[in-house]
Write a structure and sequence with these properties.
mainly alpha; about 75% helix
Length: about 190
């Protein structure tokens, strides 16, 4: 396909999608670097091998997967012209994103209750990596929530319809990416010790 072909609107849409994918690729490289550093650091003598991830991280994983499903159904409802269902599902997706962050913060509190802090004399290199990876991911979920708010606002303004839903498509792609990213990170941190 020739990327220079099409209407100005089609070219604009392709450019926006391409920019999103460039951003996603840079995030993949960043998190790939952190997980690689995690693997390399495992050889340190002070590496904690007996640490278990808090249950709150498992709950947040389930919540974020459900949020992706609700976003998929919101998009399908919009394609069918069902604005009310779309509104409800977008709102549920947003709420689940908030619940994800609250569970992550609860997981941080559980880690601190176990006696591990991010820095200082009670810190540990293993837990510092976990804090860093999870916290940076939370920041990206927050960006996803901002995108969702924009989508919800534009939906109420009736900007989207079955044939024109670029903003929702971009937000959905980013949301599904950060969801899949967390599932990968959770499984990585759960099994690689």
């Amino acid at each position: 396909m020739d990327l220079t072909q099409g209407t100005p609107q089609e070219k604009n849409n392709r450019a926006k999608k391409m920019m999103l994918w460039f951003g996603i690729m840079s995030l993949i490289m960043s998190f790939g670097g952190w997980t690689s550093a995690f693997l390399v650091s495992k050889s340190r003598p002070d590496w904690a091998t007996d640490f278990e991830l808090p249950v709150a991280f498992t709950i947040s994983t389930i919540v974020i997967v459900i949020s992706s499903i609700t976003f998929i159904f919101a998009k399908k409802a919009l394609q069918k012209g069902d604005r009310k269902t779309t509104s409800i599902l977008l709102s549920i997706t947003f709420i689940l994103g908030i619940v994800f962050i609250l569970n992550q913060l609860s997981g941080f509190q559980d880690i601190i209750a176990m006696g591990y802090n991010f820095t200082g004399p009670t810190s540990n290199v293993t837990l510092s990596y976990i804090y860093l990876i999870a916290f940076v991911h939370i920041l990206h979920i927050a960006v996803g929530l901002i995108c969702l708010l924009v989508v919800i606002y534009n939906h109420f303004k009736q900007k989207y319809n079955a044939t024109d839903m670029l903003g929702m498509e971009l937000a959905a792609t980013f949301w599904h990416f950060v969801d899949i990213l967390w599932v990968y990170l959770f499984l990585f941190l759960y099994f690689v010790k």
